[in-house]
Amino acid sequence: MYTPSTRRLVLPLALVVLVFGLVLSGCQQSKLRGMNNDQTQKEEEENENTEVTPSVDEEGHGTSPEEEELVEPGFMNGSWRVATTDQDTPAVYFDTFQDKGDTTVTGQYLMALGIYERLDGESGDIQEGSFDGNTLTLKWNPTNDQEEVLTLQATKTSEDTLEGNVTAKRNVEMDIPVKVTRRLSQGEE
User: Fold this and answer.
1) Where do the domains of the chain lie?
2) Where does the source fall among the domains of life (predicted)?
3) Which tens digit of pLDDT belongs to each residue from 168-186?
4) Which CATH class is domain 78-182?
5) 5-36 confidence digits (pLDDT tens)
């Protein structure tokens, strides 16, 4: 059993052990830091001596002005919101990519509540997409059913809007009227 005099001895002894442990730990950490710094300096020196940057003149390296080609984005390049026309409920969001002059549209989708509530939050790549300057067609499958394909068929009505329908390959009764609008960044609104 502890007496008051024993407690007076235990507390200072515990503090001495704790301080001693911290001092030793700090010494070991500084030794390790010193070793790591030495290794890092040696590695940097070795990398400086062995790095070779290919010259633009070497065949196959770099690009010449003739090889550089800037491709302008097409109409469907951007972020789009697809919503049901009856209640303006978000159905799906698309981030699409299209080069000017090319009909192919690629990108990703993120499902919302407007088509199937249970698919909210499902995402993936667009399987097939095209835009001919007037009509957009996108196909994607947010389900576990390998045979199911949802299709958005929409016609351009203005510079930032298309209107059409979403249908399903296996759920033939599904035919949801939708409005597709470009999602503008905060600075463009």
Assistant:
1) 1-56, 78-182
2) Bacteria
3) 999 999 999 999 999 986 5
4) mainly beta
5) 555 666 666 666 666 666 666 655 544 445 45
